[in-house]
Amino acid sequence: MDSPVLKGLFIVIDGIDFCGKGTQVDFLVSYLKNHPLDEKFKLISVVSTREPFNTGYSLEIRKVLQSTSDPYSKAEKLSELFVEDRKVHLRNLVEPCLSAGAFVVSDRYMYSTLAYQLAQGIAFDKLLRMHSGLRVPDIVFIIDISGKESLRRKALRLDKRPDEMFDRLEFQEKLSQNYRELKGKLPDHPIFVIDGLRSKDDIAKDIQEKVDSLVEKVYPVL
C-alpha cells in the first residue's frame, strides 16, 4: 500500500520578531508527536522547518539585513530573494513531506514577506503576484505583539542577535499593523491572529485547540 495513511498538513506560525513564534513551533511539534488521538497507533510524523530556508538565497538575505541600515532600502532585492528561497523550500522539503503524509510546521512563510516588504514600500498586489501558485497552508497563526514590545523583548535577551536594518521602532510598528491586517486582506487563507501578550502555555493551548480540529479530519478511523 503506497499511499500515506494520513493526509499531510501544512501549519504556519508567523509574526514579528520576538513574538514567540519559535517557542510555539517547538510546543506544537512536541504536542503533535504525542497527540492524544495518536496514542495507540503512532501514525503522526512531524517535520519542523523555518524560513529563510537553507539556500544560497538565505545567505544573501542575511548579508543584506546585517549590512544595510536603512529599513526602506533593498526592498525589491529582498522581495525576490525571499520568494526564491521560499520556492526552493516548498519544492525540496514542504511538498515532498506533505505528499508523504507528514505534518509540516513552519516558522515563517509568505506572510513575513507580505508584512515586511509591504512595510518597505512594495505594493501588496505585487507581492501577492510574486506568490502566485504557491501552496496556501492548512492553517496559519499570526502571533500579535506591538513593535515596541518586540524591541523590548530583544533588549532583554542575553543571546540577542546583532541589530539589523528592520530594528527601528517606527518600522516595527508598521510591521505589527501589517500582520494584523493580513486576515482581512487574505480572506481565502485560514489565518488566526493570536494575542502574543498572554502566557506561553495559554497561547500554546489556543493553537493546539485549533489544530486539533484539522487533525481530527485527517486522522483515519481504524
Task: For the structure shown, list the relevant keywords.
222 residues; alpha/beta; Rossmann fold; five-stranded parallel β-sheet; 5 strands
Structure description:
The protein has 222 residues and is of the alpha/beta class. 51% of the residues lie in helices and 13% in strands. It has helices at 21-33, 56-67, 75-99, 110-120, 124-130, 147-156, 169-185, 200-218; strands at 9-15, 46-50, 103-107, 139-144, 191-195. The protein has a 5-stranded parallel sheet, with helices on both faces. It starts with 8 loop residues before the first strand and ends with a helix.
Please give the CATH architecture. 3-Layer(aba) Sandwich
CATH hierarchy, class: Alpha Beta
- Give the tally of β-strands: 5
User: Cα distance, first to last residue?
Assistant: 16 Å
Please state the structural category: alpha/beta
Instruction: Specify the biggest β-sheet.
Output: 5 strands, parallel
Radius of gyration: 18 Å
Strand order of the largest sheet: 2-3-1-4-5
Shape: globular
> Mean pLDDT, as a whole number?
95
The amount of helix comes to 40-55%
Q: Do you know the CATH topology?
A: Rossmann fold
Low-pLDDT regions: none
Element-by-element helix/strand order? EHEHHEHHEHHEH
Work out the helix count.
8
Total number of domains: 1
Strand content: 5-15%
The CATH superfamily is known as P-loop containing nucleotide triphosphate hydrolases
Can you give me a brief rundown of this structure?
It contains eight helices and five strands, in the order E-H-E-H-H-E-H-H-E-H-H-E-H. By secondary structure, the protein is an alpha/beta fold. The relative contact order is 0.21.
